[in-house]
Design goal:
Layout: H1 6-12, H2 21-28, H3 30-41, E1 45-48, E2 58-62, H4 69-87, H5 90-110, H6 132-153, H7 163-181, H8 191-212
Antiparallel strand pairs: 1-2
The protein binds zinc ion (ZN).
Zinc ion is lined by residues 31-32, 67, 103, 107.
């Protein structure tokens, strides 16, 4: 799951008390941002094992903190606390925490068994990355539906350009297709986590830009 993680963020952003879309985009990928940062510093680990799933060669053999359900709860709670601290809005904090926690369940659908409840086996994952004809339409479908929902619930401000809508859709689609269709890396190097973090940053910035052109939900 890559852009599909943003579906819960787009749906949540339609709630009148939700944080802004850019922040929800960070929430949606919070544990992946942490994972790729941890990989750079060696606190969690991955390697490339060609064929580990049909669509994706990432062998995510050690991610006990970011991709356990318990770890996900702690990340979600920390985010909720930070949002509550700055906004004093319990609703905004809870919505963001829900989006952050959704990540683990979306990963559960697609990953090979590499997720845990509390960091040690049993390892969980339903493996839809082995079934591209199911996974690809599913990921595009949930993201497209959520995007449509966001756009209908958060109308464009008067006179606002529609370019940010097309830019975000275009970049999400382009990077997702690249993720699916570009040759899988043969072995792991640091460009992989750095590229992932760059993609998350670009998505977040484009979501922030888009959200500025939309009216508040009501
Ligand atoms: Zn993940």
């Amino acid at each position: 799951m890559f852009i599909g993680h943003y579906a819960p963020a787009l749906i949540a952003a339609a709630h009148p008390k939700a944080p802004r879309l850019g922040l929800l985009f960070i929430a949606a990928q919070l544990v992946d941002i942490a994972f790729f940062a941890f990989v750079i510093f060696g606190a969690e680990n991955m390697r490339i094992t060609p064929g580990i799933t049909a669509m994706n060669a990432m062998d995510l053999y050690h991610m006990p903190y970011t991709h356990s359900l318990g770890g996900g709860l702690i990340f979600a709670a920390a985010l909720a606390w930070a949002i509550y601290y700055f906004s004093r809005s319990a609703a905004a904090a809870l919505i963001a925490a829900g989006v952050a926690l959704s990540h683990w369940f979306a990963d559960l659908l697609v990953h090979a068994p590499d997720l845990t409840l509390l960091g040690s086996p049993p390892k969980l994952g339903l493996g839809l990355w082995n079934y591209p004809l199911i996974e690809m339409p599913l990921e595009l479908g949930i993201t497209g539906t959520a995007f449509g929902y966001y756009l209908t619930r958060r109308k464009a401000k008067k006179g606002a350009p529609s370019e940010p809508v097309y830019t975000l859709i275009g970049v999400m689609l382009a990077l997702q297709l690249y993720n699916w269709l570009a040759p899988q890396p043969e072995k792991f190097d640091l460009s992989l986590p750095l590229l992932a973090l760059a993609a998350f940053a670009i998505f977040t910035w484009l979501a922030y830009r888009l959200d500025r052109t939309r009216s508040p939900a009501n």
